[in-house]
Hints:
By secondary structure, this protein is an alpha+beta fold. It has helices at residues 3-6, 25-31, 51-56, 106-117, 140-148, 185-193, 202-210, 247-255, 338-343, and strands spanning 11-14, 17-19, 33-37, 41-47, 73-77, 83-93, 96-102, 123-126, 130-137, 158-160, 164-169, 175-181, 197-198, 261-268, 279-282, 287-296, 302-309, 317-319, 322-327. It has a six-stranded mixed beta sheet, sandwiched between helices. It has a six-stranded antiparallel β-barrel with strand order 14-17-16-15-18-19. Strand 6 and strand 7 (96-102) form a beta hairpin. The longest helix is centred in the first third of the chain and has 12 residues, at 106-117.
Amino acid sequence: MHDWITAPSGRQDTEDRIAFDTLATARRALDGTVVAPLVHLGVLDVFGPDAERFLQGQTSAQVSLADGDLAPLTVFCTPKGRMLANAQLFRVDEGHYRLLMQRDLVQPLAEHLGKFAAFYKARLEVRDDLALIGLIGREAPALAEVRLDLLPPAIWHQAGDADVQLLAHPGPRPRLLICLATERASPLWARLAEQATPVGNAVWCLHDIQAGLAWLTPTHRDALLPQMINWEALGGISFKKGCYTGQEVVARAHFRGQVKRRLVRAQLEGSELPPLGSPVETVDGKSVGEVLAAELDADEQVEILAVLTTKEELGPLRVACQAFKQLTLPYPIERLDPESLAAKT
Length: 345
């Protein structure tokens, strides 16, 4: 499945992790430009004359905003407002939308949505035939422009056509995501690697953490409200659209201030990566949160995203016997309407 990566020296450590024999990979992303295979992400396509109408009733995004320019964040919930998956939504062509999300949630979401798609002229397709490539670094926009002949878009926007899509994500360095057919990935990878250092996708995941961007995994499926991962602060919820599954609970939590847990960013004093779902504990062993993501940073220290209670003063915290130091998020915890992102273009 990943021959285009492993053939030129990539090593598949697990199903969702590719590594290269490159030293100080996180540091290289800060000092230079790197290219990474994003095998932890997956794609679900929605086609058909009713694709927009179908998605409008299922997802938190105002689907009309995904117009081939803006590529908004979105979330799919249960009727109780708990997240089944969060994603980036972008339009590939007329009546053809694409959802980018954590790979292990693509099939479960397809099965969930399939129960409703039968009532529309819309169909779902899990896209195992697409490759996702990430570029990180100051020269990433220039490299993408030269190799793809595309002007890099603004963050949470897209460029390209039905064959190749280029998306911009936030982070401490410019980040671009390329989506294209797998058979075209090998020659493009070779051209990008001439000027960018190949690194594993752990580096991309680290920049997600540093951007305060949490992608739901099976560990926390059907367990969290969207606001618990700050999704409204990232423009991932439209409070101006009509009904969608879970909308009443999500809106009530927002307007009544009932969000009792929030996503925070932190560094651990150590280099032991905690498993997802590991508890964040007080000094007396009380669990006050859980780890959603963890990676090693450029100094070989663990950085994490965790959901913590907002109800009390917590004092010193630990994860897996490592001291917990809360870091600043790169955005304010306040509502960001996705409509305002579209208005700025």
